[in-house]
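Please check the following for our workbook:

***
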Amino acid sequence: MAALPTHHSSGAPYGTLPETALKEQLSLAYVQAVATAAACTVEEVRVDYSGIDVTIKQEQPAHTLYDYPEVDLQLKCTSQASLIRPNYLAWSLDRKKYDHLRAVKVLVPRILVVMACPSDFTTWVDQDDQRLTVAHAAYWMSLRGAEALPETQDSKVVHAPRSQPFNVEQLLGIMARIGEGGTP
């Protein structure tokens, strides 16, 4: 990403958050908007030790096996063109985060959500009196049960398929599968 602008087109100064913090905030806002549109709640995890950024909860007592399903999310955001491919978004996970996301014996299932955003910070959000638009989109994947890394490997590049957009329909499907005792 190019150097962040210091002033908005109105002349007002921007804040001084670094690029990584801005992308984190953008991905949180995106997930919050999708979850809200799915009538779910989002809880931020205060300490990101386990690789979980947020938990989404659904207040729904009518699932087949489990009422009130939850899913944990690790959020990532990129503007690097080399990671944004036609069929997937690539992301490199360190061993610890990869192992946390592939864990099977967890009470709350976990997914990875990778967001693509434009390299130009000023185009991330557009607003008029009818709507607020966030560019571009996020995609999700479950690594549950994925193979362990060889002892000599410290990281793994994973591919979040573009056929799995993180949107309202997909989130409701994830919650329904969890509520039925399945995986995301």
Summary: Residues 19-179 form a domain with the Trna Endonuclease; Chain: A, domain 1 fold (CATH 3.40.1350.10). The chain has three helices and nine strands. Strands lie at 40-44, 54-58, 70-78, 88-94, 110-116, 125-127, 132-134, 137-141, 155-161.
